[in-house]
Amino acid sequence: MSKNFQKSLKRVLKHEGGYVNHPSDPGGETNFGITKSTARSYGYHGSMRTIPMTVVEKIYKSQYWDAMSCENFDFALAYQLFDAAVNHGLLNARKILQRTIKVKDDGIIGAVSLAAIRQLDTADLVQMFNAERISFYTRISTFPTFGRGWMNRMVDNLRYAVEDFA
User: Fold this and answer.
1) Which of 64, 92, 104, 137 could form a disulfide with 85 if both were Cys (CB 3.0 to 4.6 A apart)?
2) First and final CA of the chain: distance in angstroms?
3) What is the CATH number of the domain that holds 120?
4) Which tens digits make up the pLDDT trace of 50-86?
5) How many independent structural domains does the chain possess?
6) What is the CA 45 to chain-centroid distance, rounded?
7) Cα-flanking dihedrals φ and ψ of residue 109, to 5°?
């Protein structure tokens, strides 16, 4: 697996934490941010408390990193897209990116979106993307319950962005 994926996964797992079964979380039982239903769909049928890291890596690589074509972007943007896909889902992550670059937010990153991305300075794009993510979070109905954690996640991501451009 690529060095960029491994570095991104380490960051995401810091955000996602360990085993959780919060009654207000629509994802239900999770470990390392992987829901029980997702683990089952990848062939893992053991306890979520002991899901192997090899399964976790396989899921994150396939379902998020590859699905967002992260290898095709500068690392600073790739990480932020990966984290958004993990936390918001693929469609929302793509739409947030499209709103950031001011194109139709249809969730399809095609020629129009890619051309708009290429027109922007990556550092500026990452900052604007994170601002759009914060705005998105504040509109989620469970913000009163999970908002503090999401904002802490964004603080880390803003710090990562500075680190990635240093």
Assistant:
1) 64
2) 24
3) 1.20.141.10
4) 999 999 999 999 999 999 999 999 999 999 999 999 9
5) 1
6) 25
7) -90, 90
